[in-house]
Design brief:
This protein has helices at 15-36, 43-53, 55-66, 71-98. The protein is mainly α. α1 (15-36) packs across α2 (43-53) and α1 (15-36) packs across α4 (71-98).
């Protein structure tokens, strides 16, 4: 009788799905770092712009990697993701600058 009310646990994302979402996120950072960089502004300023431009890809990444986690673990993942975003975005801007 209660089995019909049970909520199925979401399955963890596959390696392929994780790889695809990481590639989309990375592509967004690199493509937009090239577009937004005026080569005069500090890399952190460009990185702040990337936060809004790549928000969709970032939140998809958090969803895919956190889909199977309980609510507390998802909050921890989101906090760590937010903390690491700026580091990743700044590194991307600097890599793009070095590649030119």
């Amino acid at each position: 009788m209660f089995a019909a009310c049970a909520i199925a646990e979401p399955l963890p994302a596959s390696k392929e799905e994780k790889r695809a979402v990481m590639a989309s996120y990375s592509d967004c950072l690199h493509t937009n770092a090239r577009k937004l960089d005026d080569h005069r502004s500090d890399a952190s300023t460009i990185a702040l712009s990337l936060r809004s431009v790549c928000a969709k890809e970032f939140f998809k990444l958090m969803d895919v990697f956190g889909r199977h986690l309980d609510p507390v673990e998802r909050l921890i993942l989101a906090k760590e993701g937010e903390e690491n975003f700026m580091r990743h975005a700044i590194e991307t801007v600097l890599r793009e600058r070095a590649g030119r």
